[in-house]
Amino acid sequence: MLNTLTLKKALDKIAKKELTAKQIIDDVKAEIEKRNGELNAYLTLNDNDTEIGNLENTTLKGLPIAVKDNICTRDLRTTASSTVLDDFKPQYDATISTKLKNAGGYIIGKTNLDAWAHGSSTETSQYGRTLNPRNLEHLPGGSSGGSAAAVAADLCIAALGTETAGSIRQPSAWCGVVGLKPTYGRCSRYGVIAMASSTDSPGPIAKTVEDAAIMLNTIAGHDPYDGTTTTKETPDFTSYLNQDIKGMKIGVIYTELEGLEDVSKILLDQVKVFEKLGATVETVKAMDPHHSIGVYTIVQRGEVSSNLGRFDGIRYGNDRSHFGHEAKNRIMLGTYTLSKGYADQYYNTAQKVRTLYIEDYKRLFEKYDVLISLTSPGFAKKIGASEGSAMFGELEDMLVEPSSIAGLPGISVPCYHDKETNLYLGMNIMAPMYREDLVIKVGDAYEKNSNWNSWRNK
Fold it and tell me: Would the pTM of this model clear 0.70, i.e. be above it?
């Protein structure tokens, strides 16, 4: 059962010559063959094993990493879960794919997602929904549902996803894994099929906070092909593990929202862990996250209508008749809100409210080192829950949308396990821009002083 190893444990065992990457890959592939027909986490598998042998002296030592199928991988099919790109094999790698390969990661396959990353359930995929491996009657979340499910089911050692407004953290919460959404601009978007260009953020989905930090080390950094990437030096994110959080100030937000009373009680009970570790924890009022639903809907649809314009069936891919229902809806709404006479009424107003969220976070971070909320308003929903619900994703991502539209880093760590359903809740830890060190430090401290991570005792 080598596929159940965490990234860190696998790296240590290879370094000690106790195992080889090939042995781990073989176990992972055996588990994929056994379970992927049921889970539908992978859309395409990499059958090229010739590159594995020379990777064991690299950072990731040839370990099998899953990659969301909206991230370009040279000569490996990349569909964004849409039949528009059914047979598309990119001629180049996304920058984060290049970084992953250069670090010795073996891309074992491409994972399912909501088509074009439009959704929070993985039910809008044109290749069929993914199931939650913790409970097959429930959804994995989305849009990075395939990556989160692959990690949860030990069908990879770690994975890459992307987040526009919850698409890393929300499926990680629903699947009981760790999802780290970096600061906007910390990781390159070059070669990532664009959804909403002003918020798209690639990042890791992993079994532990430590694994997520290792993965972030691999993919972060300035990219001359992406003008939105930061020129700030990339720190060693693993140096923030095993740190004392005594004296830190933590603000807990969104606990007063109607309908979340039961899950908010769980969160408030869990933040006592930080008090025991010497941090100051206070419940604080933040700008109502409900407003972010309108902001995100307008901004995202507007940017989607522009980005999907390139998929015209002429340059590459199939024609527009292959767009699914969700993509067509978003194109129409985005085109409408950006049209003459309506842009001022909708898009520009949404951007002004977006600025209010940015300013509200600045105010809160003057007093608190990090802010904490639930990742999602509840446990994973049942299969079919998103069908016929036009705002399903926005409602399920409501608690992380404000930080996404503000460009902030955040990490979701498991904070509760319901034994009856085998489902998890996630705790969302947020920090100021480019302070991934804080979310890693606090997330790692919580994980190691609680009992909710299902890999810690393996």
Answer: yes
